[in-house]
Amino acid sequence: MKRVAVIYGGWSSEREVSISSGTQMLRAAEAAGYDAVGIDAGRNLAAQLTEAKPDVVLNGLHGPWGEDGCVQGLLEIMDVPYSHSGVLASALAMDKLKSKAVYRSAGLPVAEDKQVTRAEAAAAHALDPPYVIKPVNEGSSFGVLIVREGTNGPPQDLLDESWHYGDYLMAEEFIPGRELTVAVLGDRPLAVTEITTLRDYYDFDAKYSAGGSRHVIPADVPEHITAMAMDFAVRAHQVLGCRGATRSDFRYDDKRDRLVILETNTQPGMTPTSLVPEQAAFAGMSFEELVAWMIEDASCRR
Asked: Any known ligand binding at 173?
């Protein structure tokens, strides 16, 4: 029987989300017949894994250290096969500016952007409003600020003492319209989901709180947009060098019929409200089957 260590938790701002993802995956791995053990990842993760002696690691970490190539590098050194993407793909996808540079090189449409420091973004508008400020290396919409048209000045929240999302940011053109997402397993796109919310935007609470958002699957968009989004998601997965499961997010301006890719998530959430399990179910794959697929797809190659 294959021994699987499900790593989750960690110490990033996405710790609680990761615990939820990891707990769900641990239960599914056990139900699928694996000898599964859960590990709340600490900075002594190498020792934790040595004690657990897994054949495979199922990575349920989110955010910095667990999603950006760091843990992946450790697992490569330890020669333990692991789920999801490798070192380089994880690092590229986690950096919003670098991943967009890769998208551009592949001819994928992106929104206008500019790299700024926190001080620069607070001192003057980085772009003509409306635009969005995003931390370069965070997920789950942490630190995202929308600067609306007609706003008197740049966002002063950036100067708050509680800010802990880094000093290097991306200012990005705000694309009006609709939020779409596509999950990819290997080289297979699953579906297109439209995400709607009554909040200002698809923020942390909208993503993870019960009733915070509504998922429409399949998205009620023109057929050519469905085909385009699925094609772009696969191309993004491939050009970044990803493996396993990913999820790419898009904005669709239906008034201008414009679709742009925002980012690719190499460690998609596996919580009860998460999009990848929902798309897998739509494609005929149960949660247990999805987790088993991730385990069997695990490898140890950079």
From this structure: no
Domain contains 301:
no
Residues 184-217 as b/e (b if ≥16 CB within 10 A, e otherwise) read bbeeebbbbbbbebeeeebbbebbbeeebbebeb
pLDDT at 200: 57
Any known ligand binding at 254?
no
Domain that residue 13 falls in: 3-83
Residues 18 and 194: their CA atoms lie apart, in Å, by: 23
What confidence score (pLDDT) does residue 302 get? 59
- Does residue 43 lie in a domain region? yes
pLDDT at 207: 47
- Pairing state between β 35-40 and 3-8: parallel
The pTM for the full model equals: 0.90
Query: pLDDT (tens digit, 9 = 90+) per residue, 88-146?
Result: 999 999 999 999 999 999 999 999 999 999 989 898 999 999 999 999 887 657 789 99
Residue 158 carries which DSSP code? G
- CATH code where residue 282 lies: 3.30.470.20
The number of domains in the chain is 3
Residue 198 has pLDDT above 90, yes or no: no
- Residue 300 in any domain: the answer is no
The catalytic residues are 14, 140, 274
The CA-based angle 130-131-136, given to 5 degrees, is 170
Query: Is 59 labelled as part of a ligand binding site?
Result: no
